[in-house]
Amino acid sequence: MEKRTEGAWLIHHTKKIQDVTIAPDFEDIELAGKCGLFLSSLAASDEESTLSKDKVEAIAKASNIKKVELAAIKGVLEDSQLIDTSKTGDVTVLGITTSSVLSHTSDIFNNTTTDNFQKASLELANYSSDTPIKDNILKDYLGDTYKLASKQTDSLLKQAEDIHLIDYEVFDNEKVYFNGNLFKHDAIEKTSKVLGSLSSSEMSKVSEVDALLTEQGCITYEKAHSILGNNLLNKLQAIAMYDFNEVSNVTHTKIFITKPSSFSKFGNPFEDDALDLAKAFIASLMYGMHISSNSRGKIQGYSMLRNTLRKLLRGSKVGPCTAIGQDYQVLELNRVIQLQSAGSGMYYMRLLKSILVN
Fold it and tell me: pTM for the complete prediction?
């Protein structure tokens, strides 16, 4: 599991744990998650900044951190060389960006625990985000991967249900676990039956597409169709396995496929329309890398894509090129980006809703 993914699950689990009276088997997760939440509130930019003792305490209170916990959390962050605390209680944040908080949260967790039970609780949520999983399969996977005894996996799933770390439904006296942010309760039986009906060959094709989506973020409809074929792609579209995002300009229209879990896997942090705009933004960037020509302003590979995103997230403008003025008009209307003419049909763009690609 990537650090950012693990960090996101740590934050997710911590928020769920805070809603229950007691969860003693998840103390390391809660400590790391609260460190992440606190650090996220402290961090403002990639520059060093200092906050007063009163401000720090107010941030802690807003982050549901009790006074008796604050010293321990600051100690962990200091040991991780993420903050410094003065004798007067002022806190200096050592150049932490909000986008790096998840990786730091993952590091804190792994540096403070060797508990496979807690590590398995993160994996069970992540594993059931790909497809709904029958309980016997999930138990075997967690037991084998994290060397847990049968009683431990039973206890883990029971506590995960009670704390709502994971969702489940019962069909034909058998539990099916799933991520409720991605697979809805009223459609889970249909989803489970469709996935359960696929042959090993079809599942292999689904895994191939999944690997591409994990690596690239999104792929063209044509690429997915070439791997899955028409019938299988239609089956998966019917159960909302993928999202289909259209990019249109004066030349033609292209459809890109993404996974719902790319944006709402850990809980829906935005409104639904904002999620759709985020997918549209990523699809436009991928269009610029895979389809656009050099004369329009082609994005030359993933290195250039990463540099473009870094500039946008810093608040800088990118361009100019003609593609920006033609491929991002819908996004400008929805105030995701701002276009600025550079003359001769070329435009710069600046990101307005930076949280959409955080």
Answer: 0.66
DSSP 8-state symbol, 53 = H
Q: Same CATH fold, 117-196 and 3-113? A: yes
Question: What whole-number distance in Å separates Cα of residue 14 and Cα of residue 165?
Answer: 10
Closest CA to 251 of 334, 325, 331, 349: 325
Q: Which DSSP helix (H) or strand (E) runs through 216?
A: helix 200-216
85: left (phi over 0), alpha (psi -120 to 50) or beta: beta
Contact between 165 and 121 (Cβ < 8 Å): yes
Q: What is the dihedral of CA 4, 7, 12, 16, to 10 degrees?
A: 170
State the average pLDDT over residues 50-65. Answer: 87
- Asked if 72 contacts 31 with a C-beta cutoff of 8 angstroms, the reply is yes
Q: Classify 355 as helix, strand or coil.
A: helix
φ and ψ at 180, to 5 degrees?
A: -70, -15
Helices (H) and strands (E) in the chain, counts: 17, 12
How does pLDDT run across 60-100, given as a tens digit for each residue?
888 888 889 999 999 999 999 999 999 898 999 877 766 68
**Residue range 314-321: average pLDDT?**
85
| Mean of per-residue pLDDT scores for the chain | 83
Instruction: Count how many Cα atoms sit within 13 Å of the Cα of residue 299 in the half-sphere of its side chain.
Output: 23
Give the contacts of 286 (CB within 8 A, at least 6 positions apart). 216, 217, 218, 256
Token pair of 296 as six digits:
């329009």
Whole-number Å distance between alpha carbons of 314 and 45: 9
Structure token pair of residue 324: 């920006």
Q: What are phi and psi of 159, to 5 degrees?
A: -70, -35
- The fold adopted by the segment(s) 117-196 is Arc Repressor Mutant, subunit A (1.10.10)
Q: Which residues are paired to 337 by β-bridges? A: 351
Tell me yes or no: is domain 3-113 CATH 1.10.10. yes
Domain locations along the chain: 3-113, 117-196, 200-357
